[in-house]
Amino acid sequence: MNLLRAITVQTKPTKQKMLAAINANSLDHLIDETVPAQIRLEQPLSLEAPKGESDMLEAMKVFAQQNKVNRTFIGQGYYNTFTPNVILRNVLENPGWYTAYTPYQPEISQGRLESLLNFQQMVMDLTGMEIANASLLDEATAAAEAMTLCKRAGKSKSKVFFVADDVHPQTVEVVKTRAKYIGFDVVIDSLDTLPEHDVFGALVQYPGTTGEVRDITDIIAKAQANKTLVAVATDLLASALLKPAGEMGADVVIGSAQRFGVPMGYGGPHAAFMATRDKHKRTMPGRVIGVSIDTNGNQALRMAMQTREQHIRREKATSNICTAQALLANMASFYAVYHVQKAFAPSLAALIT
Question: At what angle are helices 110-127 and 326-352 packed, to 10 degrees?
Answer without folding.
Answer: 80
